[in-house]
Amino acid sequence: MFKIIIKDNYDEVSFEAFKVMQETLTSKTNPVLGLATGSTPVGLYKNMIQDHKAQGTSYKNVLTWNLDEYIGIPRSHEQSYYTFMHENLFDHIDIPEENVHVPLGETDDVAKSCVDYEKSMEGHTVDLQVLGIGSDGHIAFNEPGTPFDSLTHVMDLTEQTRQDNARFFDGDIDQVPTCAITMGLGTIMRSKKIVVIATGANKADAVHGMLKGELTTDCPASILQKHDDVVVILDKEAASKL
Length: 242
Ligand code: PGA
What we know:
Layout: E1 2-7, H1 10-27, E2 32-35, H2 42-55, E3 63-66, E4 68-71, H3 81-88, E5 100-101, H4 110-121, E6 128-131, E7 153-156, H5 159-165, E8 179-182, H6 185-189, E9 193-198, H7 204-212, E10 230-235
Parallel strand pairs: 1-10, 2-3, 2-6, 3-5, 6-9, 9-10
Antiparallel strand pairs: 4-8, 7-8
Helix pairs in contact: 1-2
Bound molecules: 2-phosphoglycolic acid (PGA).
């Protein structure tokens, strides 16, 4: 079931997402968060950092699992999602390093890395999963065609996704890794609550597919139609095809 909120601009969208986050942080003693990377959640993370500094909201009892990580670049690479999360959130709040989990893409045994990541989540349920959406309808790095019941797996990135992400790699698609390790759609669907954030006209088709399109692996985000607690926060451009 979707609750759709449409705001005027990115800052308002980010603040609205922060309100959903705050509700989870204040209502649970040991909140478990599913976190995302990309441009979209940066504003949400800025709100979390500001609130931590101003209000003292603590993350000492928070556990986090990130959605995905590139394969083919080390964790120390400036564009790894491990680095992204530390620079944009973890280094600015009081979360203990042992509480954060980012899939390990820097490994000789990526199959084991996938199994280990699922195992690390055993006994925990994500209270709030933060999601962006790709212009091709992906969530995490689950590209079109990914089975709805998939668990953490390796994914070849589509040309579209690599093109979209080239802006982080000096605009050079050849520098963008060709595959990634990602939570599966089945993994994501286990979350108790999900907040999807999308802004900009280039997300309008994917947003339409997620909310109003048919349930099809051609639009991986359409699986969210089967979840019973999804808040979707959009700006006017992302909502323009609804
Ligand atoms: P973006 O990516 O936030 O950088 O647009 C979204 C996604 O690919 O999930």
